Amino acid sequence: MSKAASSRAAAVFGAGFSFVVMFFSGLFLVVAPKGSLAKEIDWTLAGLSRDGWEAVHLGTSFLFTLFAVWHVVIHWSVVTNFLTGTAMHPAGHRREGLAMFVIVVFLLVTAILDLPPTAWLVELNEYFKKEYWAL
Fold it and tell me: Are residues 97 and 82 in contact, defined by beta-carbon separation less than 8 angstroms?
């Protein structure tokens, strides 16, 4: 007798697989030459041009977002328990939630103000685009 498909497992696998592809496509785009140079030298990686990798990255980023929202909706009671607590963990996991929130806000602020560590990632990307691939 076969069981019905698990929407929880589908959400987890969907988020996980799309994240892996999104991670690698993002990494490839960091090291790829800028768009005009990529076209000029006919740059490809694993058979895809920069435009191809941008399409893969955009598509998997969209999928990852959908799967992440689906995952949160399915696990909403777990999320609220993390915030409000349970009999076993009356304080919940507010400290961990606050720590992750601070990290995200920190990276957002450093990106907006062009400060390290986010600025280092931008510089790394610029290095590959403008210096490493310089003709």
Answer: yes
Rounded distance, CA 22 to CA 52, Å?
13
Domain parsing of the chain, residue ranges: 1-74, 93-135
Q: How far is CA 6 from CA 12, 13, 104, 135, in A?
A: 10, 11, 31, 52
State the Cα angle at 11 between 7 and 13, rounded to 5°.
115
Q: Is residue 61 a contact partner of residue 53, using CB atoms and an 8 Å limit?
A: no
Q: Is the pLDDT of residue 76 over 70?
A: yes
- Over the stretch 17-46, which tens digit does the pLDDT of each residue have? 999 999 999 999 999 998 889 999 999 999
Query: Amino acid letter at 57?
Result: H
